[in-house]
């Protein structure tokens, strides 16, 4: 495999230390319990503390490339992402995929108004794409935008809207022209505090509330809030959907494998620690090998991106691989535990306070988020390998 990802030079040790000191001094204490996945804090107090934390990082100059158009140092960015991820508290608030859309298609005024405020935690965003009858087949979306003077009047409903309960703005797709298919959809910036917007949080099988339904009843959105050109929202959405898949596929698997080793040391099998059982060792070894394949898949993808030779199959491939190995690891974490794996969070007899059960339930979500794995396999086959297209109906699938 042709891979070259340079290791971080020792001249960056000072930057790393400065960042670590800053994190140690400012990391917030939250009531919220960190869990695997893209999870959302549950109280207004935690959200307020997170806004302060993210704002301080921004002020201190620890800024993520995804929120700025300025040149950033790639080594500093790698250190920043990895050190902040290790804190276990959110350092990006909301669903920030609109940043990519704004950078590629936004007006200078939109970029000025929204990118820094997203980076500093002042504005939290949600992505308003999926609907009850439009997920994979996103171009069949039913939310409508009718032009009325200098505003679009929006009516319809979205679902799966992560972070919407705390969001200030929404990255909305609505049909603004009476056509079908990819044409006639417009991408809009929606002020979530506008009259006519109703957010209804959903309780999921994990017991947490990460998604919402969002309803629009004659909501007025200024024409100035269109991202890109009216009717060309599909083009805008494609840019950010690729980023979404890359970010799901970029998730790490090493900690899941490390966690399995820890579980196997703690639980008994046939009168000895499970880690001593050959079958357990083989299965963990098998998953460790797959985790390593995922890491190199990520390096290969990054190498191709640096050389400008990315393939449309890159992001879908890392996304499918990550989500399926992650699900297998979570499943095995429960299997090794045996009957105690049925004990949920809060039960004093549960292992690691039911963490594995939550991880198992949430792991399914990664096989769906950013485009389901079945649809990703279609993209790999058709756009990556050049195989014949599967028969389509009148609308086209999420790219
Ligand atoms: C964790 C998470 C976070 C999310 N956050 C957001 C968000 O913030 N904003 C947002 O707008 N959406 C969000 N989503 C929604 C996500 O984009 C959709 O769930 C996804 O696109 C699938 O759509 P659907 O749920 O409607 O399933 P459907 O499209 O109804 O699919 C149902 C089943 O049919 C299969 N299928 C569909 N079409 C094909 C085909 N052509 N070939 C083979 N199989 C097919 C699918 O793979 C799936 O198994 C999120 C989802 C998850 C899991």
Structure characteristics:
four-stranded antiparallel beta sheet; Butyryl-CoA Dehydrogenase, subunit A, domain 2; 11 helices; Butyryl-CoA Dehydrogenase, subunit A, domain 3; 399 residues; 3 domains; binds flavin-adenine dinucleotide; 10 strands; alpha+beta; four-stranded mixed beta sheet
Span between N and C termini? 27 Å
Overall SS class? alpha+beta
Using DSSP, what is the number of strands? 10
Number of helices: 11
Extract low-pLDDT stretches: none
> What molecules are bound to this protein?
flavin-adenine dinucleotide
Mean pLDDT: 92
Form type: globular
| CATH class type of the largest domain | Mainly Alpha
Give the count of structural domains.
3
Helix coverage percent of residues?
Answer: 40-55%
Fraction in beta strands? 5-15%
Radius of gyration: 22 Å
Which CATH architecture of the largest domain?
A: Up-down Bundle
Question: Which strand order spans the largest sheet, edge to edge or round the barrel?
Answer: 1-4-5-8
Kindly report the CATH topology of the largest domain.
Butyryl-CoA Dehydrogenase, subunit A, domain 3
Describe the fold and architecture.
The strands form three sheets. Strands 1-4-5-8 form a four-stranded mixed beta sheet. A four-stranded antiparallel beta sheet has the order 2-3-7-6, with no helix packed on it. It has 399 residues and is an alpha+beta fold. It starts with 12 loop residues before the first helix and ends in a 15-residue tail after the last helix. The chain has eleven helices and ten strands. It binds flavin-adenine dinucleotide (FAD). Flavin-adenine dinucleotide (FAD) is lined by residues 38, 95, 126-130, 135-137, 160-162, 365, 368-369, 371-372, 374-375, 378, 397-398.
